[in-house]
Amino acid sequence: MNKIIFLKESLKSLKTSGTLFPSSKFLVSKLLKEINFETAKLIVEFGPGNGKITHDILNRLHPDGKLIIFEINDSFYNELLKINDSRLIVVKQSASTVLEVINTNNFETVDYIVSSLPLTNIPKPITKSILANSYKCLKSKGYFFQYQYSLTYYSALKATFKGKVSLGFESLNLPPAFIYTCQKD
Ligand SMILES: C[S@@+](CC[C@H](N)C(=O)[O-])C[C@H]1O[C@@H](n2cnc3c(N)ncnc32)[C@H](O)[C@@H]1O
Question: Does the pLDDT of residue 1 top 60, yes or no?
């Protein structure tokens, strides 16, 4: 899906997309830098949108690895279904259902979660359940990565991940973004 279609779709549903532009290659590279693609068995992505991050993960994912992605927007979901890769599972459900979905796919834990969800635009109880369920399903020492254009979720993430959150920043993105790297105990 190209940038124009992303822009059109994002304009139609700005509240759930949270931005008008897909992430830059600089942001994606910083977001994924802690992932060990040699050992990752299951990576989960929240809010893939036009699949920019999805493609980057698939390009580096081990042949035996799996990627489960959660997207609620119909047009994005239909485009993502066109990606022809047996390691990919595309789910048209909210990220809050992550626990059920990984269990249905015969996984108990997740190695890494990569999220581009617009946390501030999602109703608070849903965000709360997304963060709590993400923490629950991660394996010990597993990572949750999130970018945001403000720092509104810094304290909530520190509370969820018991202080184990490091903060990064990428200026070469529209708009510039903060990157949270959160690790489970
Ligand atoms: C900022 S866009 C991210 C696009 C792309 N990942 C990128 O970084 O360029 C956020 C995406 O999250 C999706 N989204 C919003 N709420 C969601 C939810 N509760 N569960 C899954 N996806 C959601 C939106 O439909 C949108 O595609």
Answer: no
